[in-house]
Design a protein that fits this description.
The protein has about 260 residues and is an alpha+beta fold. It has nine helices and nine strands.
């Protein structure tokens, strides 16, 4: 996903604020949470303004969650929900201020946790619905809402893990994905997983190992044996029949070698 496509394009913001306006009109007509007793124009003004402010605050946070969460190994949808829950704190304060302005009697009878709870009840489904409307119809965004293993083949690994993998390690009928500071084990076939990866990003250096080029810190040679030292400290063996390929691809720079 490209951040510019989600935040930087005017047509994207026009779409986001358009949906916010429709939601504000709907809430203004319905008048939930005790707002129905006021005039229609007051309700429309309050709810449309609140949805606009909420979109301007929450949409960038959701996008940040989508982009930054997977870098730490978290599923995109999980990280998006997490940032929405945090961003609902200032949004709840803004909603409370608006309620004090339009309905001071109603505001006086509410507690802090009520403001936060009501904000989550409205904002979380609204943002998840907006994600579905804006991204769910695109092939590249389907994985955002794929929470379980249903309809996945046994060799499919989560895209957000593969995108940040330092290396892959075969363990019997499973593939271990090594990330910065952690690893996770998934049922799959190594050769099928590697076949779906971009060869420009990394290579299978051994029957049991695939390594991302950017993850290699240096390489070691002991006689005819070659190993790769990765940025997370792992030492990965290189099969002898892969040494020539790695040398041809520029992986085995003499200046980076450590010989035993």
């Amino acid at each position: 996903m490209d951040v510019d496509q989600l935040l930087g394009r005017p047509e994207r913001w026009a779409s986001v604020l358009g949906w916010a306006t429709l939601a504000g009109i709907e809430f203004g007509v319905i008048g939930p949470f005790g707002s129905y007793a006021s005039h229609l124009s007051t309700r429309l003004t309050y709810w449309i303004a609140l949805f606009w402010v909420g979109s301007l605050l929450l949409w960038p946070c959701v996008v940040a969650g989508l982009m930054l969460g997977p870098r730490r190994g978290f599923p995109p949808l999980f990280s998006s929900v997490a940032v929405v829950l945090v961003a609902c704190v200032p949004l709840a304060a803004l909603g409370a201020a608006g309620t004090w302005l339009f309905w001071p009697g109603r505001a006086a009878g509410m507690h802090l946790l009520e403001w936060y709870g009501l904000t989550i009840v409205v904002a979380l489904p609204a943002m998840m619905g907006l994600l579905w409307l804006e991204l769910g119809r695109k092939a590249g965004a389907r994985s955002l809402f794929r929470l379980g293993p249903a309809r996945r083949t046994v060799t499919a690994l989560p895209d957000h893990l593969l995108a940040n993998a330092l290396c892959l390690q075969m363990e019997d009928h499973h593939v271990r994905v090594h990330l910065h500071g952690r690893s996770s084990l998934h049922f799959g076939v190594m050769r099928d997983v590697v076949a779906g990866l971009d060869p420009r990003r990394g290579l299978q250096v051994h029957r049991s190992w695939w390594v991302a080029r950017s993850a290699v810190r240096r390489w070691h040679q002991d006689g005819r044996s070659v190993t790769l030292e990765l940025v997370n400290g792992l030492i990965v063996p290189v099969a002898r029949n892969r040494v020539a390929l790695l040398r041809a691809e520029g992986w085995l720079d003499e200046d980076e070698a450590l010989r035993a």
